[in-house]
Write a structure and sequence with these properties.
Length: about 150
């Protein structure tokens, strides 16, 4: 994209919980920031990645544990599967980061697109599954005390 924005938040991504929506927005923002770094040319992109990729990975992990805690609190029946998806993603990202740091071929642009595809799949597809579950709890008035403290 020419304007330097790769992913954009849309209200249809909302899972119905402000805290999680805010974290998803932050993930989108971080993806866009990495993307902007890629537009600076190969050398700049590489050094920019070195500086910021760990922050991104740490934030993804932080977000996943917040999400898992929430889903545990609301007794989400597909939590185990969701956790597995989280683990697979972290593994894949760490592999990519490891490849990058070992000096092997790493194309930041490809990585950012991978991140973008994942962010959108995670937010718009996987998290939408539990969003429906949460919406149902809300309708039944069962959500309030279950998310206290997250
Ligand atoms: Fe999420």
């Amino acid at each position: 994209m020419e304007d330097g924005i790769l992913v954009e938040w849309d209200n249809r991504y909302s899972v119905g919980i402000q805290l999680i929506d805010d974290q998803h927005k932050k993930l989108i923002e971080m993806t866009n920031t990495l993307y902007k770094g890629c537009l600076e040319g190969d050398e700049a992109a590489r050094s920019y990645f070195m500086e910021t990729i760990h922050e991104t990975v740490d934030y993804v992990k932080y977000h996943f544990s917040a999400e898992e805690k929430l889903l545990g609190n609301v007794k989400y029946p597909e939590l185990a599967e969701h956790k597995r998806e989280h683990e697979d993603f972290v593994k894949k990202v760490l592999e990519e980061v490891g490849t990058f740091q070992s000096g092997k071929k790493f194309v930041p642009n490809v990585f950012v697109r991978f991140l973008k595809d994942w962010v959108l799949t995670h937010i718009a597809v996987q998290d939408k599954k539990y969003a429906q579950y949460i919406l149902n709890l809300k309708k039944q008035g069962l959500l309030g005390n279950r998310i206290a403290g997250i």
